[in-house]
Amino acid sequence: MFANSAWRQVMPALALALCSALAAPALAAESLAPQPIADFYRAPDMGAAAMSPNGQFVAALVNTQRGRQELLLIDLAQREKSHFIAGFKNADITGVHWVNDDRLVYETFDLTYQDKSYFQGLFAVDRDSAESRQLVSNIDEGNVTGSNVKIRKLSPDWHFHAVPPGRTDDIIIEKRTSNSNQTRYSYSLARLDTKTLFLKPLTEGSPEGSSSWLLDNEGTPRVAISFVNGRERIHWRDSADAPWNLLGEFDDEQATTFQPHTLAPDGTLYVTYTAPGSSTSGLYRFDTKKRAVDPKPLISLQGFDFDGYFEMDLKTGHLLGLHYNSDARDSAWFDPKFRKIQEQVDKLLPGLNNRLGCGDCESSRYVLVTSSSDRQPTIYLVYDRTTERIDLLGKARPWIDARKMGRRDFQRFDARDGLSIPVYVTYPPASFKAPYPTVVMVHGGPYVRGAHWEWTPDAQFLASRGYAVIEPEFRGSEGFGEKHFRSGWKQWGLKMQDDVADASKWAVKQAIADPQRMCIAGASYGGYAALMGLAKDSDLFKCGVSWVGVTDIGLMYSIAWNDATENSLKYGMPRLVGDPEKDKAQLEATSPIRLAARIQRPLLMAYGGNDRRVPIEHGRAFMSAIKPYNKDVEYVEYLEEWHGWYKLETNVDFWGRVERFLAKQIGSERGSAAPAASSPP
What we know:
Elements: H1 7-14, H2 18-22, H3 37-41, E1 46-51, E2 57-63, E3 69-75, E4 83-86, E5 92-98, E6 103-109, E7 121-126, E8 132-136, E9 158-162, E10 170-178, E11 185-193, E12 199-201, E13 210-215, E14 221-228, E15 231-236, E16 245-251, E17 258-263, E18 269-273, E19 282-287, E20 292-293, E21 308-312, E22 319-325, E23 329-333, H4 336-348, E24 353-357, E25 366-372, E26 379-384, E27 389-395, E28 408-414, E29 420-426, E30 436-442, H5 457-464, E31 468-472, H6 482-486, H7 495-509, E32 513-523, H8 525-536, E33 543-547, H9 553-558, H10 566-576, H11 584-589, E34 603-608, H12 617-626, E35 633-638, H13 648-665
Parallel strand pairs: 30-31, 30-32, 32-33, 33-34, 34-35
Antiparallel strand pairs: 1-2, 2-3, 3-4, 5-6, 6-7, 7-8, 9-10, 10-11, 11-12, 13-14, 14-15, 15-16, 17-18, 18-19, 19-20, 21-22, 22-23, 24-25, 25-26, 26-27, 28-29, 29-31
């Protein structure tokens, strides 16, 4: 099971000189040849890093020579003792969690999807590799592929949930069960001793339909969130033996104005709450006895809902600060020592977004630093509080040259009805001249947040080829306030689509986009919006790229082999998308398959054969509908893929098609993508 690769074999790839890792001297224009497609979609060299509670070790997921993510233990005081402690030939380690200072648990999955029978597995291992055992089976038969450990294992429907306080050998695991057609789910929690495999149920007697919980410092569920008949119910109990009481009840699938967030070690319940008169939610203390929210927020952000988590000392339980997201990642420190450390790290790593992490934060010598930017993929470093030095542990994608990446910017514009719409713009490198050929990239979901200020492969790949990338957070996107979210309900193909068109017009007015060279693209809902954009706004968009995209809204409700839950079909989708009976006329009028005759622009489409979110039938039916009207449609199926591309060879093939398609329609073959001595606006 364990890889025998020595630390010295990966050290040259990871321990680059810090100056070369972070400095980015200017390059001559002629040396800015774009990087190969595969560079943007290869698996990361270092996929994650987690610090031990005592701060002496880091567990990192490292991609080895055999092409699998394996578990590397880094000794921060004695790097030469660093070694691999777990790895598989036919699976990847996808997540790692410290149980205590000497024991870890890790999750496995086959990220190549070569073995369809491989489920997510869960293992435990000692830091010195003295003992390893499988906790959750990764295949139905219970045989552990790649391991010679033969013990009793839990079934594959159990998953890691959390590590309880106290530094025992225990973890909290979660079980999801479904009915025969996988349209209804129920959840339960249990406490598992990773050495004896003793399993203690934790959620027996929980309110009906409970699916998520907050646990106290003893590992006891104290907050339960349930879904019953399309209603979300939030329950609280004062102790392990106390009865459950209802705190609030809301419509399911809606962004409520009140949501439990964190149960602090001292028993304080923190909630996200949208106060009367406020447009966005903040983080508040909640008095469980008075059933009241504090009048003042712990933190609130103008223009953004609170999205973040506490950094706390594991030994003392002290809350030291908050990590959160606005247009970019940021931190707010209550503790003056860590406020100073943040300032020191930011000075050492200018231009990067630096997030600090620790275990026993107040007593640990080392602090884990995770750094990135719009141009720089994630870098993992460690800050030594004694020497005030920072050292490189590894880079997620060391082959990406930040100097060749595009600048990413966050702005807002007013839609035609006056609603403020956030938008991210990724500019091509400085060697290209504005206005640029432009790709308007529509995010999927659609009721999620689409983008952040960070390096993303799709946007940077397109930018490296000379295209500006416009990513609007159209109405219905989460994270920008209740009004912004609710105004997108039942607006597929209507006001949500207008926001995408308005973003395109805004980009032209800002002299970012060339109005004669603009294409619309997206996956899933974004693929739907790309098709609708060609049907409604053919004067704006000269071409479209749609992959795994919805073509028939009615098919989302009727097809028997998609993965939508009964709760979603019965309650969520009718409220957010439209009722299949009451809103039938609207859903038909906004389905691309019924507008095929209006789609005359060149189009590239792709689907996955194993996709259960948007089954391949969407693509095949649409091709039959558009065939009489548009001969300039390129269609491809990747029969082994799912809802998106997981294999490197698929990404290389698909994005190669996109590159050639865009070059022909709006790019280099039309005289636009040649570099020029100019900077972005």
